[in-house]
Each structure stands twice: as structure tokens, then as C-alpha cells.
Amino acid sequence: MPDLKETALAAEHEALGASFTDFGGWRMPLKYSSELEEHRAVRSAAGMFDLSHMGEVRVIGAEAATFLNTALVGNLAKIEPGKAKYSLICTADGGIIDDLITYRIGEQEYLVIPNAANREVVAAALTERAADFDVEIWDESEGISLIAVQGPASAAIVSSLVRAHEIDLVENLSYYAHTTVTIGGQEILLARTGYTGEDGFELYLPHDKAGALWRALLEGGSDFGLTPCGLACRDSLRLEAGMPLYGNELTTSRKPQEAGLPVVAFSKEEDFIGRAALEQAKAAGVGKTTGQRLVGLKASGKRAARKGHVIQNLEGAPIGEITSGVPSPTLGHAIAMGYVDVAYVEPGTELHVDVRGKPIPFEVTKPPFYRREQASGT
Questions:
Q1: 285, 329: one domain
Q2: Residue 110 in contact with residue 101, Cβ under 8 Å?
Q3: pLDDT digit string (tens) for 194-236?
Q4: Does residue 57 register a pLDDT over 80?
Q5: Does one domain contain both 154 and 222?
Q6: Average of pLDDT values for 114-133?
Q7: Residues of the domain holding 360
Q8: Which letter does DSSP use for residue 166 in this model?
Q9: What's the rounded Cα separation, in Å, for the pair 354 and 115?
Q10: What CATH number did the domain enclosing 65 receive?
Q11: How confident is the model at residue 2 (pLDDT cuts 50, 70, 90)?
Q12: What is the pLDDT of residues 135-149, one digit of tens each?
């Protein structure tokens, strides 16, 4: 794969026999053995992912909170140091540039995490939007690696590697919060977030220390069933959890109201970029009484709908399009997400998806398709 970027863990993936794919210009592990086995490992024990292709943009300064409240649609000033928030960065006309997790590191310091394909776009947009604010924007993406441990055994695995007095920090860390721990003498930013529908952690550290941490996690997690996992199972896991993927469910041609994301803080004082357009969309009932909205779809069989397949009403008229679809390994039937006309968004509505010329029945359902209290295989 010529001209593709590689993470600092490329040699580790090769040593484990990974097969690779081009993902947003990065040479990333698709799977190590079987994507089905990797998927089930995350649901039953734990899986480990290299997410070092994600971006890290630090925002520092006296006006950091006010700036982010102008640059993003959410209210970042309300989150306390040690916490995190999911938000969006939008265009002036309300289209979604990217969905982001933002950590508040201190009173005047935040760490913004863009998606891999958008990291340069987001860093540039933040830099441009910061021109009139007392802040500094540092794109640290080239120096930071990110490893995720996801699954029911993730807390036990991470706890087994930190210093004894830090075990409580791991076990008591709340969802969408972060702390600092030490593993093998290396200080790590530890966050309890995730993209799989399971309990899990994300570990941020310098590139040159990533290989040692990867190997320590593999060794320490061996007694807990930890399995290295690629992007293939990550996609099926996130879809079961009903989580949108940028480039599929989220694009600059879609507004947050269409995506069903209630993350726009209209109550905040700041005139954030995209505010006027999103207020107009809200007033017009976009995603509720007009236009289209993202829905979940489930089938009784295993034949999957795929991105781009046309969604039809029972009379055969086109009413939308699939954005993601897989046969669910956990649930045993096909699931999908897609945009449909608002007249068809009610859960229980029966629709068809044109799969290679054959109408396959699907039913509208509200994501997530899987919740972690569900037993694997049910």
C-alpha cells in the first residue's frame, strides 16, 4: 500500500499477522484472525485497538472555553476539568464537518479529538476560528498514539497494569471522564469512553512509548481474554451500538437534526458557527416534520443492506438510503442505519431495502440495537 501513513504500532500489527486496509489514507489493521472472533471477544471479554490515526488538537488559553463555544455547537464551557463531551463542528450552513470528543484538561486547556480522515480539516478550521480569541491551537496528532481497550474485562486489564494506588482511579473513573495513570513508568491520559457499546478505555501517550504499552497490554490482558482487533469488527461493534460513522451517517450535507443528534446547545450565549442555519432548521421542523432523519433498521434474516442501497416504502417508492449495514454477529440478524423521509421514522414501520434488485423487508427501530446487559448470542 504505497504512500499510506502508518501508526507507531505498524510493526506490532505485522508481528501479529494482521491484514491491512487503506482507511482515510492510513495503513490500518483490518483484522488479525477472524473479524467475527474479534467482535465476539469484545462482547465477551476484551479487545484492543490501535486508534493512533485519530487526531489530537490542544486548545489552550484564557478564552479557551468561550472560543470552543463559538467553534463547536455544544456547550464546552459547562464541562468540568476531568470530564469529556461529545459535540460537532459545523459549517456556516449547519452541515457536519466532524463529530468530536473534547476533554477538558484544565480551566484553560482542552483536548479535541477529531476523526482520522478529518484531523487536518478540523485543526485548520479551529485555527481559523481562533483568530479573534486569546487561545493557542496546537495540532499534536503527529506525536500522540491512542490505544483503546474495550469490553467487560477492560477495567480489570487496565487496573492490573497501573500502580497499586491508581487502581481506584481506574475503577472509579466515570463514563466520559479522564484521569492520569502510570503504566511501565509512562504517564498516560486515560479516558473512559468508547465506540463499541461496551465498557472501555482509551489510552493516550507519546508515539515512542506506544509499542511498549501495546505489548504490556497484550501480556497483562492474556489472562482476561484480551484480543487484538482490527477495523472490521470495530465497524460491526459500533453499528450494533447505534453509533454514527463520519462519512456514512454524518457528512457536510446533513444537519444534526437530520442525524437525530440532540447536541446543539441553543441555550448558550455564544453565536457559534452554524447557529443561524441550525435555528432555522429547527424552526422549520427539519428531521421532525420535514426532510429526512436517520433511523435504525432491523431485518428478520441475515442478508445485509449496504451503504448506498435504496430504502423503499411497501409500494416500492424510494424514500431514503442506507448509510451502514451488517449482519449482526451478536443479534443473529441484519441491522442497518439510513436516512428516510420523516413520514417513515416511527419505530415498527415496515419498509423494504433494494438489495441487488430484491426487496428485503426491514423494520424501523430506535438504536442502539445492542445494549451491554444483553447476553452475547441473544
A1: no
A2: no
A3: 999 999 999 999 999 999 999 999 999 999 999 999 999 999 9
A4: yes
A5: yes
A6: 97
A7: 292-365
A8: G
A9: 31
A10: 3.30.70.1400
A11: low
A12: 999 999 999 999 999
Q: Confirm if 51 and 202 have CB atoms less than 8 A apart.
A: yes
Closest CA to 263 of 74, 56, 35, 11: 74
The Cα–Cα gap between 269 and 282 comes to: 17
By the 10 Å C-beta count (0-12 exposed, 13-18 middle, 19+ buried), 271 is classed as: exposed
Query: For position 24, what pLDDT does the model report?
Result: 86
* Dihedral pair phi/psi, residue 164, rounded to 5°: -55, -40
Q: Residues 198, 150: contact at Cβ < 8 Å?
A: yes
Beta bridge partners of 145: 205
Grid cell listed for 36: 467475527
Mean model confidence pLDDT for the chain: 96
Report how many domains make up the chain: 3
Q: Is residue 16 part of a domain?
A: yes
Same domain, 36 and 152: yes
Range list of β-strands (E), the chain: 19-23, 26-31, 46-50, 57-60, 84-90, 96-106, 109-113, 136-139, 144-150, 178-183, 186-191, 200-206, 226-228, 292-298, 310-312, 318-327, 334-341, 350-355, 358-365
pLDDT for 235: 96
pLDDT tens-digit series, residues 163-197:
999 999 999 999 999 999 999 999 999 999 999 99
For cell 500522540, the residue is 144
For residues 128 and 215, membership in a common domain is answered with no
The CATH number of the domain where 305 resides is what?
2.40.30.110
pLDDT in tens, 327-367: 999 999 999 999 999 999 999 999 999 999 999 999 999 99
Residue with the three cell numbers 422549520 = 284
Q: Which residues are annotated as a binding site for substrate?
A: 202
Which residues carry a binding-site annotation?
Answer: 202
pLDDT score of 3: 87
Compute how many other C-beta atoms are within 10 angstroms of the C-beta atom of residue 69. Answer: 22
The predicted structure's pLDDT at residue 378: 27
